[in-house]
Amino acid sequence: MRFSFLIIDDNTTTIKETLELFENFPNYFCVGIVKDSQTAINQIIKVKPQLVLKRIPVKSNYGNLSFTTISELFQYVDIVPYFIGLASSPDYALEAVQSGFSDYIVDPLLLHQLGKSLFRFEKRNPPASITTICIKSYSDYQFVALQDIAYLKADNNTTDIQLYNGKTVNAYKTLKHFENTLPFHFLRIHKSYIVNINHVSRIHFSKSKCYLNYNEILPFSLTYRDNIDAIIRKINI
User: For residue 201, what are the contacts with CB-CB under 8 A and spacing of at least 6?
Assistant: First the structure.
């Protein structure tokens, strides 16, 4: 089972240290690094990470805005990620938990501390049992295994679901619908395409091309550069 995580931190040093610790847990891959809460909310909606590590800064005269992120997310997503707070002192632990954080680690972040926190996260998030989606067309129901989907292509208000075996399944739903409902390993790379990152075999930046299974070539746009970077981090282990 692979798990995706996002880091919210504006300190280059602590970001580097966190990423180095995660190298000891190869079943985790980073889908993004952002500096502030508002950018984080947009990124969480876009890439749907399962785990979020958020640096909690010392309170200013204006209060601590770190604890508003989770409450705001409830307005936009059905499932809020598992949040781990990273802080320089235990002073904000109670406020963090009351705000929806599931765990809280005081600096310095050590390997065994991260390991315990990830263990607790995995106990709360067992592997998903849904491996198939149902595509309905009038009275016709087609059951498609997620692992067989290579990519999805927008076709006006419908979507063409391209399978690994070359077959195409037509769905009377928009690409936006699938972007919001498919699991985290389906990422949008273009206004017209969502790819199953498990089928990505090559990314060519100078040509803005994404290759699937070494034979299918799709364009990607810089609008979705964060998602392309997430794919590279996932594959580059």
Answer: 211, 212, 213, 214
Closest CA to 155 of 169, 136, 166: 169
Give 162-194 pLDDT, tens digit per residue: 999 999 999 999 999 898 888 888 999 999 999
Q: Which residues of 37-55 are buried (b: 16+ CB within 10 A; e: fewer)?
A: beebbebbebbbbbbbbbb
The count of other CB atoms within 10 Å of the CB of residue 228 is: 21
- pTM beyond 0.70: no
Question: Which tokens go with 147?
Answer: 């692992």
DSSP 189: E
As a whole number of angstroms, the distance between CA 9 and CA 209 comes to 30
- C-beta neighbour count of 198 within 10 angstroms: 18
Strand stretches in 88-214, DSSP E? 103-106, 132-137, 140-145, 149-155, 158-163, 168-171, 186-190, 193-196, 200-204, 209-212
Cis amide bond preceding 108, omega within 30: yes
Q: Are 186 and 195 in contact (CB under 8 A)?
A: yes
